């Protein structure tokens, strides 16, 4: 697929704020299956580059794929911040007693 000369006739455009979203069903050679590919062009002025997201559930539309990725990253940020706040990332032990002391001291 040539992203520099993307044929937008094959893509379905979705109305989203802060950018353009295109979705299409493509065959991924590496996965040997069809995937739902989403091309996101953010129009917020920070970047002019496009971003690609995909789902192996090829029945999902482009907006669903983007929503799942956004939700996933919000959850990952919550876990990361929680670990840092609790100091869980500072302990390198694998012993149960030492970990218990570290978390509960």
Automatic annotation (TrEMBL):
SUPFAM superfamilies: Ribonuclease H-like. This is Transposase.
